Amino acid sequence: MIVFMKSPPDSAAHDQPELRSKPENDCPDPDSQRRRSTTCIVAVRISEVYIRAQLPPLASAHDSALAAFQRLRNPMNETAFVERCFDLNGGELVVRFMTPAKAPGGEFQCRWSIGWPDGEVSHRACGEDGIQALTLAMQAVHDRLLDSEAYKAGRLTLWGQGDLDLPPSWTTGPLYQIPPPPGGWPTDND
């Protein structure tokens, strides 16, 4: 929902947008990093016009209002396609891959998120089709998890093992092993 409104001419704070929190909106205080509801009102001043947009909730303290505004402006599919729960310090670390969707530029994008205890990290991977976008998203998550301090310390596992069972990136080796042809590999004597 986007609402355009004129700034009140008799407003003492003419340069600052005025946001009034209504009980049904329960917007977070602009100075606070905490999320108190499922909606947030953001005002942006453009000349004498203010834009008020109802944005999706902030995922965490690390998610900014600007990122939420960009998701509103360029919506991609936010439906969790698949997720995996890793073991982290006796708890769960949930990784989600959203449904790959065609972007306005023609490429396919697959958003992913890692739900770290101190906040969610999310990004997207692009591909020629949905399968490539999903594969590249899984590789990106695999790299992020392998680079984490928790994995390096042995505190991040999958089913009690260090193998996270995600596709490796192109820089760490082949994605798969090619099976030998029927009759085996040809030798130099053939």
Keywords:
single chain; 3-stranded antiparallel β-sheet; 6-stranded antiparallel β-sheet; disordered N terminus; 190 residues; alpha+beta
Descriptive notes:
The protein is 16% helix and 31% strand. It has 190 residues and is an alpha+beta fold. It folds into 2 domains: 1-75, no CATH class; 76-171. A hairpin with a 2-residue loop joins strand 4 (80-88) and strand 5.
List the SSEs and their pairings:
Elements: E1 2-6, E2 40-46, E3 49-55, H1 65-73, E4 80-88, E5 91-98, E6 101-102, E7 108-116, E8 119-127, H2 130-147, H3 149-152, E9 156-157
Amount of beta strand: 25-35%
- Kindly report the average pLDDT value: 68
Tell me, briefly, the overall form: flat
Distance between the termini: 71 Å
CA gyration radius, whole angstroms: 23 Å
Q: What does the largest sheet look like?
A: 6 strands, antiparallel
Give start-end ranges of low-pLDDT stretches. Answer: 1-56
Number of domains: 2
Category by helix and strand content? alpha+beta
In short:
By secondary structure, the protein is α+β, with helices and mostly antiparallel strands. The protein is built from 3 helices and 9 strands; from the N terminus they run E-E-E-H-E-E-E-E-E-H-H-E. Strand 6 and strand 7 form a beta hairpin.
